[in-house]
Amino acid sequence: MKCAICQHGYTEKGFTTVTLERNESVLVFKQVPANICDNCGEAFLGSAINQALLSQAEKALQRGFFLEMVNFTAPTVAAEISLL
Prior knowledge:
The protein has a single domain (about 10-84), classed as Ubiquitin-like (UB roll) (Roll). The protein has two helices and four strands, in the order E-E-E-H-E-H. It has helices spanning about 45-60, 75-84, and strands at about 10-20, 25-35, 45, 65-70. It is elongated and about 40 Å long.
């Protein structure tokens, strides 16, 4: 798909890092599946990936962390493939 940000590149399947912050807490997810623009590098997440990311972040917040870095766990391989 054509990049919605730069309008010049096209997205390719890949992985990105997502940083989420809430109040004093910072959570960094590594290896998040995304469509990434080959021109500007913008990452686009599918809705199921985004939902899983937010769900994992809420669970981490309940543990009361200050700073945490984790590998993202995709909902299922089939869902990941269909979302990219």
